[in-house]
Amino acid sequence: MKKLIKIIVFSYCALFFQNSFAQNDQEQVLNDELFEELKTEAIKLYTSAEYNAYMDRGFKFAAKLPKDYGKTKEDFKTWIVKRIDQSKFKTVEEAVSEYEIMYELHHKYEQLQKGIYKKRSALSDKYGSSLVSDLYNEKVSKKIIDIQLGR
To answer: Which stretch is the leader sequence (predicted)?
Structure first.
């Protein structure tokens, strides 16, 4: 019986200390200046009207393309010339113009996303990817979703 009580007490203490350390780790991440920068930059980017317009434009562009677009290694103009009738674009020029706009916008936002990724990666290296991922989802992703849904 004494052995059972010792095991129960030990288990309780271990659980208590584990939760204490986990709480301290969370607080360290949340108080890290880099996490605050990450949070601010991600929320600002992913809730901006410009970024939302870019995403909307991308979906509309993709909807006009023939289904086999992602399977090609040809440059876009060569590829679309052969398939303009299978697309929902009125002309090759319209398709190429929209592609060039999307290409430029993609590179613009890719650079901003790389900055966010580098911060998240540095935090993951410092605190562990699981903890940082959980906190990012809780403190950043949920906030972005709430803003997008108008909550």
So the answer is: 1-22
Q: Which residue has the tokens 């935090």?
A: 123
What are the tens digits of pLDDT across the range 23-38?
568 999 999 999 999 9
The pTM for the full model equals 0.75
Distance CA 131, CA 119 (A): 14
CA 140 to each of CA 31, 66, 71: distance values in angstroms, whole numbers, following the listed order: 14, 35, 34
Q: How far is CA 64 from CA 45, 90, 92, in A?
A: 26, 10, 12
| pLDDT tens by residue, 106-124 | 999 999 999 999 999 999 9
